[in-house]
Structures are given as structure tokens and as C-alpha cells.
Amino acid sequence: MTDLSDLAPLWTARQRGARVWPALPLLVALALWGYGIARTDVSHLDDFGLVSALHPAFWTGLAVLTAGFWCTVRDPKRAQGWSFAYVLGLLLMERATQALVYPTPLYAWAWKHDAVVDHLLTAGGLGTEEQLGDMAVYDQWPGFFAAQAALVRLLGVDNTAMYMAWWPLVSSLMLLLPLLLIYRTFTTDRRLIWTSVWLFYVANWVGQDYFSPQSVAFALHVGVLAVVLRRYGGRRGHRGRPRPAVWTVLLTVLVTTIVVSHQLTPGMLVVCLLALCLTRRYRHWVPVVTAVVIFLAWCLTAALPFLSAAMPDMIRSVGDVGANVETGYEATPTGAGAIATSWAARLLSGSVLLLAAFGVLRQPVLRYRALPLLLVAAAPLPMFVASSYGSEMIFRVLMFMLPGAAFFAGAALLPKVRTLAADLAAREAAGRGPVPAARRRRFRLPDLRYGAWVPLVALLAGTLAFVPAYSGKDRINYFPPAEVALVRNLFGQAPEGSLVVAANRNYPLAYDSYWSVDHYWFLDDGRSHVDAIVRSPAATLARDMSAVAPPARAYLLLSQGQIANSEMDGQLNGAKLERIRRSVAASPRFRLVAENSAGTVYVLEPAAEPAVEPAAEAGGTVR
After folding, report:
1. How far is residue 59's CA from residue 28's CA, in Å, rounded to a whole number?
2. Between vectors from CA 118 to CA 305 and to CA 259, what angle results, nearest 5°?
3. Chain segment 493-536, per-residue pLDDT in tens
4. Which SS3 state, helix, strand or coil, does residue 559 take?
5. Distance of alpha carbon 340 from alpha carbon 51, whole angstroms
6. More confident of the two residues 371 and 19
7. Whole-model pTM?
8. Cβ atoms within 10 Å, residue 347
9. Residue by residue, what is the 3-state secondary structure of 420-485?
């Protein structure tokens, strides 16, 4: 017979339940996510991209995950491990879904960066402007590409396309540690820390986490801010205290890596460090001087050829705020899907910024205690005046504002929060040590009061809005395997010195062999010339392509990605592009050399030689 005294008391079982109940919604959410992506078909994307293709189970899982996170994080005594687990679940749903449902990597720009790495591996060194033309700019900021070339050889893979589909998840994980360090500098409130992290990832829809120098440079930028905020702050009386050399060395390494990898990020870093100097606590000039000296040294040496050519345009753009904040790559979103995606992104960003402003007003203690973070959030705004950055400045400014804005937006969703400085001051005033941990409460259901559910609705709306803002243009960004095979076939057979003509650059491998093959995208031309191509496609394109001398060839590539980009950005609709293709197909000056379900490739015949060879079958090779 068992002695009842040997049994665990009922309250122990309840405590155990209180500790593990957050696992239930997390596991349910991940199960629904896995079920949903297994049943998501991306073979026929419409103008809503991945949004309309996702199985309903995905949306249900994302809602369950958000609700479970909010109920977990609201308990200040809950172990941080659960909040960390929910954030990892969010990153899987946000950043790993595309890698799992698409058989090929997304983004034409990612394929472009793959070509740059391939050039470094092939050429064994950097090239000059005379050798590479406009692409020489990547060789003048080679940090990211050189590191990727080394990684390709270390892993023994053929190219970066073998892993770049997973880069959004990797680059997002790189941001987690510096974000936690920054937020823990100003608060001990776990609710505020993890809610801010969640909002940061939800609001970071800009898409610069893809395989790019910007993704790494931004993570290093946040890392520099974490080092400065945690190791270069101090009270006024200790401003002259020498800093450990190890932090100065680390700072130098991080800044140098940023400077040699990306053009814009060093400028953003300098303005953020200058903003920190406006406060007494962070009025240390070592970080600022380090960043400025390294940045100027690189600009006046390795990057000087590019800057010398680009400087006139850069000077003209200074002060032109209207042009600098223009969005959309000089195009207007067209169609219900493109417009809905654009508005989802605007509403998501606007809502987070409004929440941040409300958090500043609602939590007065943060206006003083976390003033440095507020300055970091506001510092990128003057960059609107400096440059348009290819019509992307508005997106980049938003991204660099997010680490600070997310913190105050998280404060808007919480009741009164604690700050680190306030806790220390209270302990000093009371003349006692750290506050002892409170006795763990017994298991109880989450509080269902109004104050708990209004922030949950806001958090849920923002989390769900991330999907159309981030993946709503996947009809443009996704290239099916047939399109990849078609373009790879073309560049594999094109002789050195050849010319590839396309409507725009939105196709995979668009810059493949850029050191030996020229490119021309006719939608980049003035409107009058584009109109001439639409009126008389074959004759105008033949004239444009006729300067290529044998043995080089001139090819015309029309593919699925180009059509999607042209239609959704309001350039040429599918009917006009099909008219161009039909005109070229009927012209004796062009010969069909490859075709499959994703596009066609034509070669320009010499003027004196009519096309006599029959067209290749679907999936045929370039001759």
C-alpha cells in the first residue's frame, strides 16, 4: 500500500503544468505550419503571390503562435526560454516558409550576387571598371562576396545557389543576439524585451534579409550599436575612464567589415553614432572617430573609382526629398495584388511607427531612461535628404529605424514597464541588493481582461500583415526550375562578347558571365524608345542588336519573370510583351533556339543570311 505522503502534492503538479503549458500552443502552431506548407502549391502564383497560395492551416498556425506568445510573454515570471522558443517559431514561419515551398531561390538580386561570387571564384581576384563596367562596383566593396567565395570552397558546393534560399533565416538569426543585448541595456522587463524583438521581426518586411551584402552589414550595424550602448556608456563622472582594448578592437573589426561590404550602411552607422553623442552618457568619440576614419579611408582608396563617377549624381540628389522618398523602383504597382501588397506594407510600417510614438507618450520613464535608443531610431531620417539610393531610401531608412522603433512600440502594448536604471536606483535608495525572485505562482489561466486582448489583436494583425508585405510579390520574385534551366542553358552556350537582350532584369542568372557577356534591358530606356519597340518590335530590336560582331551572338530572352515584373510594376502588360514575341518569331531576322514553359530564346541572324534552321524543341539547347 502506498503512503500518501510519498505522492507529489497537488500544487507541485500544478506548478509543473504552469511551467509547460506554453509548449502546447507552440507545438500546435508548428504542426499546423508543417501541414500547411506541405499542401501549398506554388506552381501557379497570381498577383497576390504566396498569400493566396498558402494553405489555410498556415494562417491558423501563425495566429495560434501569436496568441501563445502573447499569453506567455505577459507573465513577467515566466522563464525566458519560452519567449525565445516562440520567436524562433516566428522566424521559421516567416523566413523558412519560402525556402521550403519554392524549389529555387527567390529574388533576381540574389542570383546577381551569386554571379559576383562566381566571378571571384572564376577570376581569382577583383576586376577593374574597364573589365567589368557597372559591375565593378561589387569588386570595390568585396567583403561579403569574398567571404561567400571562401564559404563555397569550404563547404565544397558548386555555388551559393545551393544555400542562398535559406539566407533570410540565417541573417534574421544573426540579428537576435545584438537586439537582445541592446534592449537589455535599458530594461530588465522580459515582457518588453521579447515583445520588442517580436515586433522588430514582424515589421522588418523590407526584404533586405535575402542573400546580399546589406543583410550582413545590417546585422553588424546592430552589433556595433550593441557594443557601444553596453560598453561605451557611463555616468558623467566616469566618462574619462579608459575602455578595455578588447572592445575597441572588436569595434574596429566590425566597422571594417561593414565598410568593405556595403556602401550605405557605414553612412547610417555614422549618423547613429553621432546621435548617441548628443547624450552625456554616450559622449565617447572613439566609436565615431573609428567609423569615420575607416569609412573615409576606404572611400578615398578602393572605392574611389566608383565614387568619382557617381559623385555628380549623388550631389544632385542632395536635398531632393521628393525624389529621394519615391518608392517602387520608378514604377507604379498595378493590379489588385500589387496594390494590396503595397498597402499592407505601408499600413504595417505606419502602425509600428505610430505604436512607437504612443509608447514614448505612454511610458514617460522611457523618454529619459531609453533616450539613446530613441535617438538611434530617429537618426536615419536625415538620410532622406542625402540620396534616393535607387528609389530605395525610404525602405532602408525604415529598416534602420526599426531596432529603436520596435522597442517603443513594444512599450505601447504593455502596462507600466521597468527600466534597468530605475531598478538600480531603487535598489541603491533602499540600501539592499538584488530583488529576490518571487515565489512561483500556481497554475492559472491567462488573464482575460480587456487590457490583455486589445494588444493581442494589434500584435496578431501586425503578424498576419507581415505575410502579404513580405511575400505578396512572389509572382515577381519566384523563378520556376524551367526558367532557371532556360537561362542557364543560354549563358552556358553564348560565345564570349555576346549580347543578351531582355525586357527587364527580372530573371534568374541575369548577370551570369557578366565579365564576358553584355546585357541590355529595353524597359530601362526612355519612354519614346520603348514605344518604338512596341510599335515595330522585330525591326527596332534587330537594329538595336545588330552591332554585335561574329563570332559573338545577340540573343533575345523573354521569360515568365520578366512578364510578371513588367505587369505588376505597370510597365508593359502581358499582351504587349506577347505582341513583341510574336513579331520577333515571325521575322526572318530572328531564329528560335530554345523554348520551354517558362520562356523563349531567339538569336539575331546576320542581315545577309536568312534564318533556315528549324526551331528547337521545347527544352532544346542554344546553338
Report:
1. 12
2. 40
3. 889 889 999 999 999 988 888 888 888 899 988 888 888 999 89
4. strand
5. 11
6. 371
7. 0.84
8. 15
9. HHHHHHHHHHHCCCCCCCCCCCCCCCCCCCHHHHHHHHHHHHHHHHHHHHHHCCHHHHCCCHHHHH
